[in-house]
Amino acid sequence: MNPSARRSSRTVREGKTSAAATMAKAQKKVFEELPTCHRVDRTSTAFLNGLRREKVMATGKATGKALPTKKAAERNPPRAADAIIEVRNLTKRFKGFTAVDDITFDVRKGEIFAFLGPNGAGKTTTIKMLTTLLSPTAGSISINGHDPAQEQEAARASFGIIFQDPSTDDELTAYENLEFHGVLYGVPKAVRRERITQLLEVVELQDRRDALVKTFSGGMRRRLEIARGLLHHPKVLFLDEPTAGLDPQTRNKMWEYVKKLNAEEGITIFFTTHYMEEAEKVAQRIAIIDHGRILVQGTSEELERQTETNSLEEAFLSLTGRQIRDEEAGAAEHMRMRRQAWRGGRR
């Protein structure tokens, strides 16, 4: 091997060693702060994967900066004085395709706000920009006074999120999942332990705190994710299609928890859904989005008046049409399908 190749090889090895050392240090911190009875194998794939996934939300960086809109001031409606979420002229394009097209809205402190739309309307793309997972092409966002594109850590400290796909670690217990989240978000140990106990009681999982999550039903996992999203006392809770795939009884119970938390802790709730009854029963205000644009927003009664219809469902269909929508599989869906195929091959 020539000297240049040896130097290149040594640089690669040193980079891998540095990355491994950083991961080991973070892994050790979490492990040492877990009670003995809740410790897991520090070398397990589940533990490392969980650390990486949680670390992205706790300290990760956005992949770009929002671009200013030239005439935003001319088109912006008056801002709500008590708004905790402010969105102005928000746009997201992917290689010529506009997923979110110049949308503007506010969400007030303590409000339950629904983003209602058919498959592929732009709901998930919007929530990803609000939660620092995607960078806008244009426009501006403020979450509790912070710009998610410029102040990722401050913005993330202000919100909790429940993803559309399950995100708890199957190989950890309910308690370990919450402890993991609290450590990575820097919640002090005493506060963290008290908060975990409190939240497990709120979501009625205290008796399953030491059970592995892989033994939980879909509804139990969702309840655990709600507890995890609230662990660091966020001002806003984002829920992306939170009841997809759940039976009616579990869906109703989950919304009971969410409304209770909203009433007792004053947490602002922002959720996306395509279930009419959820938006009508739970949300105080609703925005209907389709093809990346907000068509109308207001209370359920206001939307009915604006569309001259007798129900939210009729209002929704009058605006979005009655044609069945096919939802394109995104990157996460493609990965899930490949994982299922791979597992099937292993069997």
Which tags fit this structure?
Rossmann fold; six-stranded mixed β-sheet; globular; alpha/beta; three-stranded antiparallel β-sheet; 13 helices; about 350 residues; about 45% helix
CATH domain topology: Rossmann fold
Given helix and strand content, the structural type is: alpha/beta
* CATH architecture classification name: 3-Layer(aba) Sandwich
- Counting structural domains, the number is 1
Largest sheet: 6 strands, mixed
Helix content, binned percent:
40-55%
If helices are DSSP runs of H or I spanning 4 or more residues, what is the number of helices? Answer: 13
Let me know the CATH homologous superfamily.
P-loop containing nucleotide triphosphate hydrolases
Low-pLDDT stretches: 35-51, 59-76, 328-347
Strand order of the largest sheet: 5-6-7-3-8-9
Terminal CA distance reads 43 Å
- CATH class division: Alpha Beta
Mean pLDDT equals: 77
Question: What share of residues are in beta strands?
Answer: 15-25%
Order of helices and strands: HHHEEEHEHEHHHEHEHEEHHH
Rounded radius of gyration (Å) = 22 Å
Q: Total strand count, please?
A: 9
Shape: globular
Brief digest:
With 347 residues, the chain is of the alpha/beta class. 46% of the residues lie in helices and 18% in strands. The longest helix is centred in the N-terminal third of the chain and has 31 residues, at 3-33.
Explain what this protein looks like in three dimensions.
With 347 residues, this protein is α/β, with parallel strands linked by helices. The chain has one domain: P-loop containing nucleotide triphosphate hydrolases (Rossmann fold). 46% of the residues lie in helices and 18% in strands. It has a 6-stranded mixed β-sheet with strand order 5-6-7-3-8-9, sandwiched between helices. The longest helix is centred in the first third of the chain and has 31 residues, at 3-33.
